[in-house]
Amino acid sequence: MSKRMLPLGKPVRSPVIISVAQFRPEKAHSPRLEAFAHAVGILDQDMPRPKLQFFRGIVEETSVVSGAANVADFFPALRRLGWHGPERKLAWLQRTRDALIGEFIKRHRFRRRRSGSNGEAAVAIGNGDKGRATVIDVMLSLQESDPGTYTDVTIKGLIAEILAAGIDTSAVTMERAMCLLLIHPEVLHAARAELDAKIGQGRMAEEDIPNLPFLNFIINETLRLYPAVPLLMPHESSQDCTVGGYDVPHGTMLLANAWAIHRDPNTWDKPQEFKPERFQCEGGKEEAGLRMLPFGSGRRKCPGESLAMRVIGLALVTLIHCSSGRSFRGRR
C-alpha cells in the first residue's frame, strides 16, 4: 500500500487500533486474538467467537507447518515411498482455510443480491460507514465491474494474505517494542517527553506520527533487533554469479538473513544493545540502506511497509500514553 493510499483507510484504521490498544483486563490474556478479531471484523463483522478462534488456529498452524523442515526435500526418493511430510497437513490446512473464506464470500454475495446493492460498499467505505463496509464487500463490488480480474480465487488469496502476513507481524513488533521500553525506562520516559511536547495529553492524531522522530527511532530499533520475518522471502538468482567467494549457479534459491544483517558488528555499533538514538546519527532507516531490511528491498519488498509503520506507530503512541512508566528491568 502506497503512502498516498493510507488516508483512505483512516476512518476504519484509527478507531480499531485505539480500541485494541486500550487496556481491557478481560481481554488482556489474548491480545493477538483481539487484533485478529478486529481484522476479521473488517472482513466479516458477524463471525461467531468459536469460529473466530478456529480460524485463528488454522492461520497460526499454517504458518508453523509452512516453516517446518521436510525430510523429502533432502531425500527426494522418500516421495516415491509415500513420504510427504508436512505437505499433506499443509494441503488440509489450506483447504480448510479456503472453505472458511469461501463462506464469508458466499454470505456477503447473498446479502448483496438480497439488498440489491451494486457498488454501494465501495461508496460506504469512503463515507466511513463501518456498519456496511468490509474488504469482502469492496472486492465483490470490483468483481462485478471486472469479473475476469477479481475472481473468487483472487479474493481468497488477498484475504489470506491480509490475515497471515499483516496481523502477527505488526502485533509481535508492538509486543516487543513495549517489552523493550519497559526494560529500558529511560527510553520510555524520553518517548513520553516527546509525545507531551509535540502532541500533549488530550489528543492522539494519526497525522502526528511522522512528526515524532524518536518514536520512529524506537520502531526502527525494534525491527532491527527483532525483525518480524528473520528470513526474508525467497528469491532466485537470475544468472551465474560469485558472492563472497562462493559460486552461485543460475536458479539457486536465495534467502536473506535479516536477523544476521541487523546484528552484524562490522556495520552496527554494539548491535546487541537497544539504542534507538543510533538512528538519529544514521539519519533514519532510509540512511541505513541495505544494513536495515525488515521489509526487504527492491521491487519485491513488502508492499505493506507504510501501513505497518503507521499502524505500529499509532498503537505505540496509545500504549505509551496509557503506560505507568514503571521499570521491569531484572524481572522475569
UniProtKB/TrEMBL annotation:
Heme binds at residue 302. InterPro entries: Cyt_P450 (IPR001128), Cyt_P450_CS (IPR017972), Cyt_P450_E_grp-I (IPR002401), Cyt_P450_sf (IPR036396), Plant_Cytochrome_P450_Monoox (IPR050651). GO terms for molecular function: heme binding; iron ion binding; monooxygenase activity; oxidoreductase activity, acting on paired donors, with incorporation or reduction of molecular oxygen. Its cofactor is heme. The keyword Phosphoprotein does not apply. Keywords: Heme, Iron, Membrane, Metal-binding, Monooxygenase, Oxidoreductase, Transmembrane, Transmembrane helix. Its main location: membrane. It is a single-pass membrane protein. GO terms for cellular component: membrane. It is found in: Membrane. PANTHER family: CYTOCHROME P450 82C3-RELATED, CYTOCHROME P450, FAMILY 81, SUBFAMILY D, POLYPEPTIDE 5. Belongs to the cytochrome P450 family. This is Cytochrome P450.
